[in-house]
Amino acid sequence: MAQPNREEEWAALMRAAIGGDEQAYHRLLESLSHSLRAATRRGFAQVGAALNDVEDVVQETLLAIHLKRHTWDPDQPLGPWVRAIARHKLIDAMRRRGRRIEVPIEVVLDFLAADEPPDNLDLQDAERLVNDLPGRQKDIVRAISIEGQSIREVAARYEMKEGAVRVALHRGLKALAAIHQKADGE
């Protein structure tokens, strides 16, 4: 949250900018960008999201401020108006992003490349779990996790792009985790 003197400074700069002072506008946007960047990082961290999209949200917020600056009431503080725009842009980014869990593919591949299967899961159990997956996910998870094929081999086998194989693998492993968790809960 901005301090009162920062709020007054921002309001004065915005009034000057609306009056045509380009230097004031530049200083305002520069100051706002620092504050917005920190607030956006906090917002992403609070929901456990990766910080990949912070700069995009900051830029979208600054653009919205620019496009909607005529709607700001010069008799009101600027901070709450800016924070409302930033909050909406952060929410929009979260909605676009969805409730995804981001796991680097290298971590998944390291896990799959482990020499020994987990103690509580033998090959028959693995086959049974994988058989619960839908079509192509089942084929991809089986090929990579059980048969030991590489992403490249599976992509060639199913005439898919390697990225699409990684996505299907990730989704399949996530679905397997949900199936396994559900089975443990029963």
| CATH-defined topology of the largest domain | Rna Polymerase Sigma Factor, Chain: A
User: Rg to the nearest angstrom?
Assistant: 25 Å
- Report the helical percentage: over 70%
Separation of termini? 46 Å
Order of helices and strands: HHHHHHHHH
C-alpha geometry: elongated
Assigned CATH class of the largest domain: Mainly Alpha
Question: CATH homologous superfamily of the largest domain?
Answer: RNA polymerase sigma factor, region 2, helix turn helix motif
SSE map:
Blueprint: H1 4-18, H2 22-46, H3 54-68, H4 78-97, H5 105-112, H6 123-131, H7 135-146, H8 151-157, H9 162-185
Helix pairs in contact: 1-2, 2-3, 2-4, 3-4, 6-7, 7-9, 8-9
Task: Give me some keywords for this one.
Rna Polymerase Sigma Factor, Chain: A; mainly alpha; Arc Repressor Mutant, subunit A; 2 domains; 186 residues
Give a written overview of the molecule.
73% of the residues lie in helices and 0% in strands. The longest helix is centred in the first third of the chain and has 25 residues, at 22-46. It is elongated, with a radius of gyration of 25 Å. The protein is built from nine helices and no strands. Helix 1 crosses helix 2, helix 2 (22-46) packs across helix 3 (54-68) and helix 7 (135-146) crosses helix 9. It is mainly α. The protein folds into two domains: 4-97, Orthogonal Bundle (Rna Polymerase Sigma Factor, Chain: A), CATH 1.10.1740.10; 105-185, Winged helix-like DNA-binding domain superfamily/Winged helix DNA-binding domain (Arc Repressor Mutant, subunit A), CATH 1.10.10.10.
